[in-house]
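Collaborator request, handled under Task 6.
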Amino acid sequence: MATDKKVQRRLKIKRRIRKKVFGTADSPRMTVFRSNKHISVQIIDDVKRVTLVSASSRCKEIDSLKDTNKVAQAVLVGKMIAEKAKEAGINKVTFDRNGYLFHGRVLTLANAAREAGLTI
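Structure tokens returned to the collaborator:
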């Protein structure tokens, strides 16, 4: 029952954030999903309703590194999404934390994407 309350609370926060955060062609929305084991990120154009670029800790390059912890995985995913975004011609994004607090793995992923050259 406690996890159900947690999920409902996060979804309520997510809806509140999504009222303000909207991805356009100039600045698409970068949304993060965090599970207990993995982290994934997508860059979405909300006008066309299409995912432009995505990256996850479940991809072969990151998943093959068995000894990395979750924070290190978030750094690798952040760098990977920034590289893929540059290849797609995306330099600036709007960050959507998806109801999660902006610390820990979410913050680490955002900082790694910034360091790799993505403007958030």
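The cover message to the collaborator said: "The radius of gyration is 14 Å. The first strand starts at residue 29 and ends at 34. Please let us know whether this matches your experimental observations."
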